[in-house]
């Protein structure tokens, strides 16, 4: 990111916070961004907070994935090792796109160009890039094979390849198969057609989401009673709050058009709550009630009838079964019912998984994700392999905010492993979800494995705040580009 882009973002923030009578520094403090000293111009404090100790450790490091997690790790390693030997394997020239912006594209608040960047522009000096894909793993021999057929050896491996969107597991979308956030969307768009089905989990389908949302709003504005439904699948997903964010933004756009009363908006999550942290669950429930939303827990999307604009869900519930004399309790039997729901507009959050070539390999696991110690992020079997980001099998944290903590742990522990030392850096499970609740309002949900709010500043974290909207819309992108991708933030 060019420095002038950061300056422009900061000028926007200055202009906005001036309207509410506070300084940029006060705004950052309120937003819990004390660690973003570099954005305040305090370079000394920033360097002290972000620069790791130099190491003369030697070793050939191979990083699979050139997205946010991979490039941030490469940058910090390159600036920490005195003689780095780092290679990144990444097939997509646009891999470092600003993915959190897809939600804003879907609601017409960002353009596609706002999130698109060339990976080569963020490649750290001295780091080699191979434009290809890892397709085979031989961790016992410390080798991988890439798509071209070339075998590449390593001393240490970092897997940061992200995840795939498993649209093909939904009946009616089999032809789409696996997809990627930054990948070719032609199969998805062809399958969705003009049906009102959308998804913000691919950048090009996010653009189409805004088009379909406008049609939906126009129908409601013209007096038609319309139904919008929003799904959350039965797998781990990147940014667990995103399905609710796009629902909230649909509500905002309908209200803005004076058409909200004609639209029924319903959330269909696979789980039995709005959020894994009770305090945020309670807050979201109140927001849903205030906005007149409907919701149905324990509904997993299994199919779509595109022609008839009907979604098919597996609804499940538990019933009391036979009494167990030995345990002195009733067994519980899970029941299932197929439920068909008509829609005019539907946002699909697809099931997600590790890419098959990784998840089904020797470095993968039964559930597909790369199995790591959740604190050290070291592979549970291969001690010279680390993993982070969406593909890592940690209890929660498939967000950029999680990566901001994880990549520093990986770098510190990787260097310790190179030096033959004990791994002392620990990831505490921190993640952050700037949950958009309205245009101009965000609830900043911060938490860790304790499943308790862990706010960065002593403000009620369950409250929607304008200041956190400024952070989401104006600051997180430059923080990501100017800070994380340089290995500093």
Automatic annotation (TrEMBL):
GO terms for biological process: sulfide oxidation, using sulfide:quinone oxidoreductase. Residues 60-188 form the FAD/NAD(P)-binding domain. SUPFAM superfamilies: FAD/NAD(P)-binding domain. One of its GO terms (molecular function) is FAD binding. InterPro entries: FAD/NAD-bd_sf, FAD/NAD-binding_dom, Sulphide_quinone_reductase, TAT_signal. PANTHER family: SULFIDE:QUINONE OXIDOREDUCTASE, SULFIDE:QUINONE OXIDOREDUCTASE, MITOCHONDRIAL. This is NAD(P)/FAD-dependent oxidoreductase.
């Amino acid at each position: 990111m060019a420095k002038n882009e950061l300056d422009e973002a900061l000028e926007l923030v200055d202009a906005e916070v001036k309207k509410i009578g506070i300084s940029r520094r006060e705004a950052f403090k309120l937003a819990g961004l004390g660690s973003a000293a570099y954005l305040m111009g305090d370079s000394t404090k920033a360097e002290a907070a972000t620069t790791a100790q130099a190491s003369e450790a030697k070793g050939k490091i191979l990083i699979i994935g050139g997205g946010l997690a991979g490039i941030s790790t490469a940058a910090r390693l390159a600036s920490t090792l005195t003689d780095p030997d780092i290679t990144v394997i990444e097939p997509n020239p646009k891999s470092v796109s600003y993915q959190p912006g897809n939600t804003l594209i879907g609601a017409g608040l960002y353009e596609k160009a706002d999130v698109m960047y060339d990976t080569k522009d963020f490649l750290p000096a001295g780091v080699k890039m191979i434009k290809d894909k890892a397709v085979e793993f031989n961790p016992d021999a410390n080798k991988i094979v890439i798509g071209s057929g070339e075998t590449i050896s390593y001393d240490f491996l970092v897997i940061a390849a992200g995840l795939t969107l498993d649209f093909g597991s939904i009946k009616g979308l089999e032809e789409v198969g696996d997809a990627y956030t930054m990948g070719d969307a032609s199969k998805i768009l062809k399958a969705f057609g003009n049906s009102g089905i959308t998804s913000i989990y691919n950048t090009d389908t996010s653009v189409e989401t805004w088009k379909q949302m406008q049609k939906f709003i126009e129908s409601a504005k013209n007096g038609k009673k319309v139904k919008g439904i929003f799904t959350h699948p039965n797998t781990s997903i990147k940014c667990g709050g995103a399905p609710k964010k796009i629902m909230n933004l649909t509500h905002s756009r309908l209200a803005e058009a004076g058409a909200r009363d004609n639209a029924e908006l319903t959330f269909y999550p696979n789980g039995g709550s709005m959020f894994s942290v009770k305090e945020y669950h309670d807050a979201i429930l109140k927001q849903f009630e205030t906005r007149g939303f409907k919701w149905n827990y324990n509904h997993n999307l299994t199919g779509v009838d595109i022609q008839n604009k009907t979604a098919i869900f597996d609804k499940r519930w538990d019933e009391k079964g036979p009494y167990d004399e030995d345990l002195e309790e009733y067994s519980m039997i899970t029941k299932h019912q197929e439920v068909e729901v008509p829609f005019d507009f539907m946002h699909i959050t697809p099931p997600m998984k590790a890419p098959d070539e990784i998840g089904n390999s020797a470095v993968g696991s039964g559930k597909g994700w790369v199995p790591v110690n959740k604190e050290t992020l070291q592979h549970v079997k291969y001690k010279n392999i680390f993993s982070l980001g969406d593909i890592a099998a940690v209890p929660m944290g498939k967000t950029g905010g999680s990566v901001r903590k994880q990549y520093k742990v990986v770098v510190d522990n990787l260097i310790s492993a190179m030096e033959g030392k004990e791994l002392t850096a620990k990831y505490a499970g921190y993640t952050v979800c700037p949950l958009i609740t309205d245009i101009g309002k965000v609830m900043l949900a911060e938490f860790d494995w304790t499943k308790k709010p862990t706010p960065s500043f002593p403000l009620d974290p369950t409250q929607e705040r304008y200041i956190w909207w400024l952070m989401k819309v104006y600051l997180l992108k430059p923080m990501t580009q100017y800070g994380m991708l340089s290995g500093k933030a």
